[in-house]
């Protein structure tokens, strides 16, 4: 890279699966080279701050290990033996295998599988156009947002809340179940601004003393899966101490007297027994909430990744309705802003070609699906061909042993379109090299704020890398799939999508870099009523009819009718005395960035944090090799003694590639794929395990 050349600074957007979706400024040296990446100062949410891993993105774009040419497997499945192949031959081979699968078992035998390796709509969701046009099996996207979104929507009726920038105008910011320091640094920007400029207090609720908890004025340390109990006790105190806003409750909520009565027995002593958090801390938290009108509840994803996660999210979201914090600037609750963007993606996704009779397969249950579980296959044919873009299920999906067994099937053909040789690419039959965000055009939504942003193509792709859109269109031609979107460029798709959505044109977005989609104050604070027909916040949601738009399959479970501690988590038992959570590491983002040298150097090696008082009886010392196990399998990693967890809780920050573990079995060997009620999801932080020191 020629650092003496003065770079152009070009606007872009972060493509990664992080709620912030930062507005970026990228140094571009020439048609092939980027330099540093910064946050846009004049974007009111990014405010010039981005995380370190994206600031050094040149490391990723110009990484020597990037896939540069199509590859065909030449050794046994999973052997990692590949040979170069031309693009035409690779695409012909994929099309031939898809046609063969369709002829043998019907179109549902092909399962296009994707996720959020890029959050750009054209490159992420265009795969759905192919699957609709060809009637391939549908993709029920469950692995991330379902529990959190359902829990929040249950109360408000839609997924939107107080402007995230209002955190800076709060007197109390409650950061609940998200380690923002690791996963969305901008939350800290606005929360700490409130502290600096207004003397606001920051409360963090989490399961270990992570970076966010350490920055809080009041860290509330609880056991995994007990957030519902904590929320109930806080609300108990609010009603008990006369801090509930009855005028607000009577006007804006559905069942306040029933809630108050129900909470009489959910006092701090009760919650302390469940959460492990001292009653004095719960009382102090409740006092702060009760005494602060401008209290902002920033509710994260982490605490929803539990079998009772939907109920926990709903319970936490209820607190602001009890105090009436929604009335005030800097008050209320926020999780994600999906509902404000009303983006019409029908052209990108080919929704007009969708056939509702085609089965939807649960993304999180890929292990069961590929190993032939009839229930997971929904009574349909086996999956015998897959195209995988933007995701790495062999590392990130739960029940990893089953996932690996599935991918090892000789009768399964897999094409992986990727940037690096991931765990999933390793087990593919054909590997295609993919572009990165600076090498193609796309648009992005910042669900953690309120911006719609453009990420234009800034440099040429290296080697023979092609974009997801190019691959989808090239396969469509070979497969005889018809849809107008296959004949369009990404820029045409973006322009028409913006126009159909009422957000102007691509030329306007290009000129303005982003669109601030924030609704007015009264709308964002639900001052004209919540998004249910009667305008009332639901303390008592009707779970099966919660208006979550992706409810393709319903888990039949009797969920609590009012906020509560729902006892469906994998509780520790005599065989499995510990509860394990797989929280996100700062240097990685899911399995992305596990290839960049600075992230690897920072994260070191796979470790599990253990309370010293739990380690001592097992003769485990700091740095010892240990094994974690449960009925799903066993994982070997190293112990880190850490007193910032409750006794009996283990934290393994992830997500490392499987090869980083002694025997190639990654942390998701231990996580379960049984769906979270009511609409599916994976309980990544809800695992009972045993722990042993390795003796050899
Ligand atoms: S904080 Fe999130 S959105 Fe911002 S640059 Fe980092 S990964 Fe991207």
- CA-based gyration radius: 25 Å
- Beta content: 15-25%
The helix fraction, in percent, is 25-40%
The largest pleated sheet is described as:
6 strands, mixed
Question: What secondary-structure arrangement, pairings included, does this model have?
Answer:
Elements: E1 8-13, E2 23-30, E3 33-39, H1 52-55, H2 58-61, E4 71-73, E5 82-84, H3 87-105, E6 110-114, H4 121-125, H5 127-134, E7 138-140, H6 146-156, E8 172-176, H7 180-183, H8 185-198, E9 201-206, H9 211-215, E10 218-221, H10 227-240, H11 246-252, H12 256-263, H13 268-275, H14 279-291, E11 295-299, H15 309-323, E12 332-334, H16 346-349, E13 360-362, H17 366-370, E14 385-389, H18 393-396, H19 400-407, E15 413-418, H20 423-426, E16 430-433, E17 442-445, E18 451-455, H21 468-479, H22 490-501, H23 506-512, E19 514-516, H24 521-524, E20 578-581, H25 597-603, E21 607-610, H26 612-615, E22 625-630, E23 633-641, E24 649-651, E25 687-693
The structure holds iron/sulfur cluster.
Residues 14, 16, 18, 20-22, 50-51, 54, 184-185, 589 line the site of iron/sulfur cluster.
């Amino acid at each position: 890279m020629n650092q003496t050349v003065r770079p152009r600074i070009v606007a872009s957007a972060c493509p990664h699966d992080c709620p912030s979706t930062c507005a970026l400024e990228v140094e571009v040296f020439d048609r092939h080279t980027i330099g540093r990446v910064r946050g846009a100062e004049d974007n009111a949410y990014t405010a010039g701050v981005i995380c370190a891993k994206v600031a050094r993105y040149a490391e990723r774009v110009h990484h020597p290990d990037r896939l540069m040419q199509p590859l065909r497997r030449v050794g046994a499945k999973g052997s990692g033996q590949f040979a170069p192949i031309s693009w035409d031959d690779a695409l012909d081979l994929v099309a031939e295998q898809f046609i063969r699968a369709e002829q043998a078992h019907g179109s549902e035998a092909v399962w296009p599988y994707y996720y959020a390796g890029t959050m750009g709509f054209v490159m992420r969701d265009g795969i759905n156009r192919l699957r609709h046009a060809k009637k391939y099996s549908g993709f029920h996207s469950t692995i991330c947002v379902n529990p959190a979104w359902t829990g929040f929507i249950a109360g408000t009726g839609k997924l939107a809340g107080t402007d995230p920038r209002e955190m800076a105008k709060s007197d109390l910011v409650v950061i609940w179940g998200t380690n923002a320091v690791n996963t969305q640094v901008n939350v800290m920007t606005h929360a700490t601004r409130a502290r600096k400029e207004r003397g606001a207090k920051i409360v963090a609720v989490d399961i270990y003393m992570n970076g966010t908890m350490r920055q809080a004025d009041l860290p509330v340390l609880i056991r995994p899966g007990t957030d519902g109990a904590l929320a109930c006790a806080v609300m108990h105190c609010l009603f008990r101490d006369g801090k509930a806003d009855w005028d607000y409750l009577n006007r804006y909520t559905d069942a306040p007297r029933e809630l108050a009565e129900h909470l009489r027995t959910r006092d701090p002593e009760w919650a302390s027994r469940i959460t492990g958090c001292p009653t004095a801390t719960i009382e102090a938290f409740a006092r702060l909430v009760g005494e602060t009108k401008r209290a902002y509840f920033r509710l994260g994803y982490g605490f929803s990744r539990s079998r009772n996660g939907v109920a926990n999210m709903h319970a936490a979201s209820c607190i602001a309705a009890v105090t009436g914090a929604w009335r005030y600037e800097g008050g209320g609750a926020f999780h994600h802003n999906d509902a404000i963007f009303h983006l019409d993606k029908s052209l990108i996704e080919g929704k007009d070609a969708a056939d509702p009779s085609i089965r939807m397969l649960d993304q999180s249950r890929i292990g069961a699906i590929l190993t032939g579980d009839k229930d997971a296959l929904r009574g349909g044919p086996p999956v015998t061909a897959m195209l995988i873009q933007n995701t790495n299920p062999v590392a990130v999906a739960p029940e990893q042993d089953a996932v690996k067994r599935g991918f090892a099937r000789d009768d399964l053909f897999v094409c992986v379109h990727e940037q690096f040789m991931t765990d999933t690419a390793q087990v593919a039959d054909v590997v295609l090299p993919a572009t990165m965000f600076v090498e193609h055009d796309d648009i992005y939504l910042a669900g953690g704020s309120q911006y719609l942003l453009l990420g234009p193509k800034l440099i040429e792709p290296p080697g023979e890398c092609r974009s997801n859109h190019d691959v989808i269109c090239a396969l469509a031609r070979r497969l005889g799939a018809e849809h107008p979107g296959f004949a369009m460029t990404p820029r045409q798709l973006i322009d028409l999508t913006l126009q159909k959505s009422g957000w102007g044109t691509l030329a306007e977005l290009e000129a303005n870099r982003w669109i601030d989609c924030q609704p007015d104050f009264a709308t964002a604070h639900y001052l004209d009523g919540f998004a249910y027909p009667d305008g009332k916040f639901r303390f008592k949601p009707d779970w099966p009819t919660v208006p979550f738009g992706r409810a393709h399959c319903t888990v039949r479970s009797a969920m609590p009718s009012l906020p509560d501690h729902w006892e469906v988590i994998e509780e520790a038992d005599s065989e499995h005395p510990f509860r394990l959570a797989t929280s996100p590491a700062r240097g990685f983002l899911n399995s992305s960035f596990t290839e960049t040298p600075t992230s690897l150097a920072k994260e070191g090696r796979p470790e599990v944090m253990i309370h010293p008082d739990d380690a001592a009886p097992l003769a485990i010392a700091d740095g010892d090799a240990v094994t974690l196990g449960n009925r799903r399998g066993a994982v070997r990693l190293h112990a880190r003694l850490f007193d910032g967890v409750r006794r009996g809780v283990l934290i393994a920050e992830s997500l490392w590639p499987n090869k980083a573990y002694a025997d190639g079995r990654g942390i998701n060997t231990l996580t379960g794929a049984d769906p979270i009620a009511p609409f599916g999801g994976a309980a990544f932080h809800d695992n009972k395990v045993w722990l042993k020191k390795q003796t050899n």
